[in-house]
Amino acid sequence: MTFHASRFNIEGGLLGLGADVLLEVVHEMTSIRDLQTFIGLCQTTFHLSTHPRFGWAVATAITDTTGTKAIILRELKSVRYLLSSINKPGMGNTIRTAVFDITQDRETQLAASQTILSLTILQKNLTLRPQKSFIASCLVYIDGLNRLHKKNISFNEDFDEHHQERTTQWIKSIALPPITERFVSIKSQGSIAFALSLSGEIWVRGMDIDGTYTESEEWIVPPFFSTADGRLDSSRGRSAVRYFTLDTLNSFVFLHNGAVFAVGNLKMFKQYESSIPNFGFIELTSPTLVPIAEPSLTGALNTDAGEFGIFGVHKPVHYFRRMSCFLTSDGVVFARVSSDPEKEGYIFSPIDNALFFNGEGIHDMCYHDCHAYVTTGGRIVVVKGRRRVTTMADDLAHPLFVHPLPYSVTRLKRVLFVDEESVTIMKDDGTVQYLCKGTPIAKDVSDELRVMTFSDVYPFGMVTKKFSQSGTHYFFLLE
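and the corresponding structure tokens:
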């Protein structure tokens, strides 16, 4: 028996599939613009927004951080200007930007490859002649086919042909991993970069196999990151890499099972164990390491030894580079403090939320001119953020100001900038809000940001998917 193809047609076409199937379609979308277009097709798709499962359906697009265009800012002062809601006359010359559009890149002509999955910026101090040097920049990104690329980027600077020639020579010398390797994430703090492969190994540039720094431009897999099955050994068992981040002196790698490793310069951890080498690779969640607490910060918080090494009973889930703080799954901050000037290194002391944050856990943090703590209750607490034990507790106890979030804390994507008078935040839909001390109303500055970053490269209709830092650079990833 044969059937005509028409017998398999669905009455009403796509819209005849029903709400549940349409929500599955929405759930597969990673583009906020595609999502907005789909919801606005007709009354049937628009009514999906009132469905109880709509929040689940749009989660993929909201949390996705891929894009097609990057606006890169050279220095923090450019960010400070752009993220202010007031266009200050005469400051335009302080903005140093570069733009990368993957859809215009000749190396990624296939439609499937024209997505930026992850990007970072490498930096190098190059010499032109004796006593004359400059900082060169190289964009390294992962495309939609998980391939790694390098690209010369130029900012609006006074670089002549000699600077450009020297930069081109340096970029050519960067030996990327074999073209057969595929990657999912890449990060850099300028001179050192990590790239996580699909196979679960971490490739490193700027670091030798023993954790010391090197000037080599070759990407390698150090022994401690080498794996045959995509999992690394830890005191908690074998597990795959969940997340990694790079600080100025060292890097941190988080596994799915809760283990955390420090890589690179390890001198700051000498107070936990004097035998820790100056450079190398150690597990911070090892049971051989125990918490060291600063009494003025911990209050009645449980600081006993536990299954997570220096974090005790608290499971670390994230590290905030600019804050030099770890955040745990129960919303406890472990802050780096200088507790004893006579001893080498620092401690990461837990902060009692009951003592300083009205018992609310911490959801997000940010540091630029000040420290900002976002609580699970939807408050932004801004403090001076001094690191000495003698001043840190006092700063936390006496905030500069506290501002309510203008929406649920679950809608917050991240804090972009903070100073003594204001906080700039990004919502999960890519819009940007400016919160001013003493003013309860939030001001949407998304359009002003678009205008100040030049509307020809940040046109209406594009959505901000990510804001991040790489060394001294910051970038917006748009889609």
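(Above: one complete record from the training split.) Residues 141 and 194 are 12 Å apart (CA to CA).
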